[in-house]
């Protein structure tokens, strides 16, 4: 059980700006770290250090130039750095969740269904999925009158709570979170802290960016300073 869920080794990435005569912008070089089940690890470092870029590389949204990003899926290990797109999609569906900074609004779909969707995708009956989505939105203090409405017109904090609920509702052994509490008030930040604690106790490994020091101290077991990975870059 002590096999890491995520193992990053020797990862390097340089952005090449084709519209700027191929200017090269190195972000990380030789980045390496591991996450065990039940651990929450923060990516730290100043603005522009490469925190979001590392998260996007792990999720497979940014290609890496070198190195391995190995994710354990049951008895199998998938290297995000080399996996073909279909394997990556399957990995995301079963194993690797992502709570983005902003909700990607799906037109005409109400908040309750937006949150329930990952469970329905997992094969949970719609009625149960909807009930669980309601429980989660209630915990996050999203007023019930908003549940049937598409989140497009919601406030920033309301959208963020829908986004968190959608990201946390289904079990995924590895969760990536980019600033999950940036737009939340203190009461709702505490709800998110509690929800993350429950995930950890369920054995989920979490890699996140938490600018809020209170939240970070409450949920994270350690901080990885991304500037360490830039030194050689
Ligand atoms: N798609 C891209 N193309 C070119 N450069 C990029 C791209 N994404 C990020 N960068 C550059 O890489 C560097 C790291 O950006 P990144 O967004 O990872 O920083 P960050 O640590 O998340 O910062 P913040 O705390 O402000 O969110 C920045 O200099 C940024 O301009
Ligand atoms: Mg960022």
UniProtKB/TrEMBL annotation:
One cellular component term from this protein's GO annotations in UniProt? plasma membrane
Classification via PROSITE patterns: ABC_TRANSPORTER_1 (PS00211), ABC_TRANSPORTER_2 (PS50893)
The record's section on Pfam families has: ABC_tran (PF00005)
Enzyme class of the recorded protein, top EC level: transferase
* Keyword Transferase belongs to the record: yes
Single annotated GO MF: ATP binding
- Signal peptide (UniProt feature, chain positions): none
Indicate the segments forming the ABC transporter domain, all copies. Answer: 6-233
| The entry's keywords | ATP-binding, Nucleotide-binding, Transferase
What EC number(s) are associated with this protein in UniProt? 2.7.8.37
Q: What family does the entry list?
A: Belongs to the ABC transporter superfamily.
This chain belongs to the protein called Alpha-D-ribose 1-methylphosphonate 5-triphosphate synthase subunit PhnL
- Record organism: Ancylobacter tetraedralis
């Amino acid at each position: 059980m002590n096999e890491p869920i995520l193992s990053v080794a020797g990862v390097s990435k340089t952005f090449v700006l084709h519209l700027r005569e191929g200017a090269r912008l190195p972000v990380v070089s030789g980045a390496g770290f591991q996450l065990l089940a039940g651990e929450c690890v923060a990516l730290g470092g100043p603005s522009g250090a490469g925190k979001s870029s590392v998260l996007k590389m792990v999720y497979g949204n940014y290609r890496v130039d070198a190195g391995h990003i190995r994710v354990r899926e049951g008895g199998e290990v998938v290297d995000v750095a080399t996996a073909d797109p279909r394997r990556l999609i399957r990995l995301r569906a079963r194993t690797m969740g992502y709570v983005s900074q902003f909700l990607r609004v799906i037109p005409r779909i109400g908040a309750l269904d937006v949150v329930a969707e990952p469970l329905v995708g997992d094969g949970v009956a719609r009625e149960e999925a909807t009930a669980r989505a309601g429980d989660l939105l209630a915990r996050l203090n999203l007023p019930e009158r908003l549940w049937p409405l598409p989140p497009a017109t919601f406030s920033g904090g309301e959208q963020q709570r829908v986004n968190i609920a959608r990201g946390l509702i289904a079990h995924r052994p590895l969760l990536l979170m980019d600033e999950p509490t940036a737009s939340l008030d203190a009461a709702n930040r505490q709800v998110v802290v509690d929800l993350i604690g429950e995930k950890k106790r369920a054995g989920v490994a979490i890699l996140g960016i938490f600018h809020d020091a209170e939240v970070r101290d409450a949920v994270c077991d350690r901080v990885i300073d991304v500037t360490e990975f830039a030194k050689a870059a």
